[in-house]
Amino acid sequence: KDEYQKKIAQFTTISQTIEDRIKNLELYNEIIDENGSFEDLIEIKNIPPRIVAYTRCYSSCYHEGLVMRYYELDNLVKEYNLQTDGSRMAVYHDFLADFSPENCELEVCVSLKESLNVLMPEIIRTIDGGLYATATYHGEYTGQCSELVQWIRNHKYEIVGPAVEVYINSFMHTRFPKNYITEVQFPIKEA
User: Fold this and answer.
1) Mean pLDDT to the nearest integer, 135-147
2) Pair 134, 45: CB distance under 8 Å
3) Cα dist. 31→27, 81, 169 in Å?
């Protein structure tokens, strides 16, 4: 009986992964249809709070570092039997300070499906909602968001929190970097 339950859990996970990939492909097609191309897109959004499972540490933000951090996070998600919606992101806590891609203060996160009544501060938290300046990048994203920071300053806004990268289509969805879609978000307020 336990063996069947394990198989059902595995099939449920596979099914969820497929659903997540379909959702990301639909989003990808929406963005292409709306914009005609994937030039960098900057807009102001009111983003609701997000409940996430996370790990926070100093790490490389390059591909290998992120893969290791997500592997650790996935193990925590399984250990605590958390249900995710598949949306993955990273929070860069020292992005505007002394940012070093080789060793930055980084949180890797995955959005949780259900709203939890009790947060477990060691692995579950809420990313604040509010006004965010966002830019969507297509292809391999290597942190080229200086245009977004400059746009924020030129439009009389002030950055009020850490940068968030939302991985719409990433190494977890495709092995081709040219198909990556990353939305960079900065929480802002009027200056």
Assistant:
1) 73
2) yes
3) 6, 33, 12
Phi and psi angles of residue 181, each rounded to the nearest 5 degrees, phi first? -130, 120
Rounded to 5 degrees, φ, ψ at 77 are: -60, -45
Read off the tokens for 92: 């860069």
Task: Determine the Cα angle at 119 with ends 116 and 122, to 5°.
Answer: 140
Which structure tokens are listed for 47?
A: 């983003």
How many Cβ atoms sit within 10 Å of the Cβ of residue 82? 18
Confidence of residue 164 (pLDDT cuts 50, 70, 90): very high
How far apart are alpha carbons 150 and 147 in whole angstroms?
5
Q: pTM of the entire structure?
A: 0.75
pLDDT category of residue 38 using cuts at 50, 70 and 90:
very low
Distances, alpha carbon 5 to alpha carbons 50, 66, 75, in Å: 31, 31, 19
